[in-house]
Model the fold of this input.
Amino acid sequence: MRIGIDIGGTKTEIAVLSEDGEVRLRKRRPSPKNYQDCLINLQSMINETEAEVGPAVSIGICLPGAVSPDTGLIKNANTLYLNDRNVTADLKTLLGREIKLVNDADAFALSEATDGAAAGTRSCFAVIIGTGCGGGLVYQKQLITGPNAIAGEWGHNPLPYYSVEKDGPIQDCYCGRQNCIETFLSGTGMAKRYREKVNLDAKTIPDAHAVMARFAAGELSAIEHFQHYVNAMARALASVINIFDPEVVVLGGGMSNISELYEHLPEEISHYVFSDHLNTKIVPAQYGDSSGVRGAAWL
Ligand SMILES: [Zn+2]
Done:
């Protein structure tokens, strides 16, 4: 048995995988709001799980950030309390055993390329579009990693072809830059920009689901907002396709459940790629939200 854990912005999930990739147990809890509670929560989830299924041979954890190759500290996490922490060392102290850490989008990409939506392909770009906007690259079933631990991280590139007329006011990002792709494409960003556009508060439009409910009801402003969303995503994906030319782009995270994306994205992307035809397939993740824990467990 292998344990995989996915620390997300809103929830923490634990899963137990058998050697043949079958999920034996799966549990979710809301993610704590500070680092100490996060560590204690992980400890209790692991203890509870092993009490039920017995000791695991390995524990892999994916989180929304990267381990700095220079310092071993977490960087680039949008769950801000994880940044500048040595999660590997702190968990080793707490649990008395080794754990492996991986970026959540990398875990997701590895899982989908191994036996998920991109299985059998040579190259895949897998993105998680939820509270953040991460990405991972897999070539011949190997994660592509680099000296900065940022391979595939497209979310903090600026939105290509940005203009105020087309894309609305400048968006500030938590990373300190402006107009990051994430501020337009994450569920959080999508809902925020809609609220600003139609002048509604977060109570009325708490998240992207609320926007899509208005879209489904035929509300014009929501339809326009979604059309812009698809166009912005097409611009963002086309810039990656121009560089990596993957066979498949796998979409995961909360926003990937919007089925209309797959109807409109290929046509929309084709306007922005440097090719007369788009052969890249755009597909939803096979394991959906479970890909993070699966990839972490496979570590
Ligand atoms: Zn940013």
Q: What stands out?
A: The pocket of zinc ion is lined by residues 156, 173, 175, 177, 180, 182 (CB under 6 Å). The two ends are 12 Å apart (CA to CA). The mean pLDDT is 94. The chain has two domains: 2-104+291-298, 108-286.
